[in-house]
Amino acid sequence: MNKALYDKEIQCPVCKNLFHTKKMRSSAIRIEKRDTDFCVYYNGENPIFYGVFVCPNCGYAALESVFQEISPSGKKIVLEKIGTKWTQRDFGSERDAYKAIEVYKLALLNGQLLNQKKGIIGTLCLRLAWLYRYIHEDRELDFIEHAANCFEEAFRYESLPIGNLDEVSLLYLLGELNRRLKKYDEAIDWFNKAVSNPNIKRKRKLDMLARDQWSLAKEEYKKQKEKNEAIVYAENEALI
Q1: CA–CA separation, 194 vs 213, rounded Å?
Q2: Are 162 and 151 in contact (CB under 8 A)?
Q3: Opening angle at CA 164, ends 135 and 189, nearest 5
Q4: Residues 155, 167: Cα–Cα separation, whole Å
Q5: Contact present, 62 and 108 (Cβ < 8 Å)
Q6: d(CA 67, CA 65)
Q7: Would the pTM count as exceeding 0.85?
Q8: Sorting pLDDT into bands at 50, 70 and 90, what band is 237?
Q9: Could you report the per-residue pLDDT of 119-154, keeping only the tens digit for each?
Q10: Alpha helices, DSSP H, located in the chain
Q11: Which of 22, 19, 66, 20 is nearest to 46 (CA)?
Q12: How far apart, in whole angstroms, are the C-alpha atoms of residue 238 and residue 240?
């Protein structure tokens, strides 16, 4: 028996089915380290695995924070688009990274069908990127790109906070996601916005991290530019 987990009873807002899903006790969370895009590594059980609830009866899935937030028209969409094709299966037991990927993708499908806010879709994509990172699979970058696009749109058109991110944290994250995508000019622009935001002074660690990653992005941009210039020079030499 895994003492870090407990059963939580949930009622599906779509089909009214009662089901149980695993949740992690906050007292059992042991953080090992964090990556520069806020990806957390844990000693022991990973609470990210359990961040999505899935109804085993109709296939409705969403982040815990928005699971109950669905309109009557949204319920109809889920029942028609997912429920009619759904093979009943239970995701309420212990999960590993592979099972977590499955449930987050299901939540992403639901979210896209329901036209959920870009901030929610971005959160799902970012966590999927982390899950692929945990298992060292290349699809990580695909979901980082999706997350960056969603968060940028959310920043421009949705009210803050976006998920659990305030403005300065989101500005920083957009810089770091673009840096990881090797879009260095865009990364530099977002980092510049972050370090120029007066609110970052209230977040000393984030301020230092933003300045470090900003400098790194500038160095990487310079190297990329020099490499591209060398390639162009070599191509021109070959034509002579």
Answers
A1: 11
A2: yes
A3: 80
A4: 8
A5: no
A6: 6
A7: yes
A8: low
A9: 999 999 999 999 999 999 989 999 999 999 999 999
A10: 72-81, 97-113, 118-134, 140-157, 167-180, 184-196, 204-239
A11: 22
A12: 6
